[in-house]
Design a protein that fits this description.
- It comes from Stappia albiluteola.
- This is Mercuric ion transport protein.
- Keywords: Membrane, Transmembrane, Transmembrane helix.
- The chain crosses the membrane at residues 32-61, 73-90.
- The structure is a single chain.
- Helix content is 84%, strand content 0%.
- It has 104 residues and is mainly α.
- The chain has one domain.
- Helix 1 runs parallel beside helix 4 (70-91), helix 2 runs parallel beside helix 5 (93-102) and helix 3 (34-65) crosses helix 4 (70-91).
- It is elongated, with a radius of gyration of 16 Å.
- The N and C termini lie far apart (42 Å).
- The relative contact order is 0.24.
Length: 104
């Protein structure tokens, strides 16, 4: 379950950064048609992050209820950090995009 929580954190961060990341890559000169592929992920971003948060909460509950190895807590902590970062990116996406557009 801890692995799913960590992978969910990575997935939530990837979907939350789907609009900020392409602008950053374009600023670095790596634009292209692949940017259009990320647009479909933008609509699913809040759902993916919410599902990731639920999986992480369940994994934390199960691991704290029993005796889990340290690696489990490290994976859950990393997944929680990534999911929190995804929420921050999602909630501040407009301001981040405006800032990056100023650099274009």
């Amino acid at each position: 379950m801890a692995r799913f929580g960590f992978l969910g954190g990575i997935a939530s961060l990837a979907t939350a950064a789907c609009c900020v990341l392409p602008i950053t890559f374009m600023l670095l000169g790596a634009g292209g048609a692949w940017v259009a592929v990320l647009a479909s992920a933008a609509a699913l971003s809040p759902y993916v992050i919410a599902i990731s948060a639920v999986v992480l909460a369940t994994a934390w509950f199960l691991s704290l209820r029993g005796s889990a190895p340290r690696r489990t807590y490290a994976l859950l902590g990393g997944g929680s950090l990534l999911t929190a970062l995804a929420w921050i990116v999602l909630l501040n996406e407009e301001a981040m995009n405006d800032y990056l557009i100023q650099w274009m």
